[in-house]
Structure to design on (115 residues):
């Protein structure tokens, strides 16, 4: 999946987006801003995802807590006023790629309920 993103015709846009997202993760914590979100918000997570930037370099006791999206997804949804959480318990980092039919069906079902 990742190789295709960097090899396609949108390569430059993907590279810039990835650089900006990485910069934000490392330099601009946003947790305190979640309660300020005032637009309909749907968070989508694969609960088997364990991705966490810097996880490999973290101390073992910290490493165990990083990438716990079952907990982090719920906490983020609770912090954003009116947010809804769409969880895929058996999928990982890219539910839209791992099971596109189920992902799209769930997304289309969830979107009209956002207020």
């Amino acid at each position: 999946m990742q190789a295709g993103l960097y090899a396609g015709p949108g390569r430059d846009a993907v590279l810039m987006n990835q650089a900006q997202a990485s910069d934000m993760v490392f330099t601009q914590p946003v947790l305190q801003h979640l309660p300020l979100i005032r637009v309909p918000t749907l968070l989508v997570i694969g609960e088997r995802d364990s991705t966490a930037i810097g996880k490999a370099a973290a101390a073992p006791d910290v490493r165990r807590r990083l990438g716990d999206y079952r907990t982090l997804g719920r906490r983020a949804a609770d912090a954003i006023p009116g947010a809804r959480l769409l969880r895929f318990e058996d999928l990982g980092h890219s539910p839209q790629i791992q099971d596109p039919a189920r992902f799209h069906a769930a997304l289309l079902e969830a979107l009209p309920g956002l207020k």
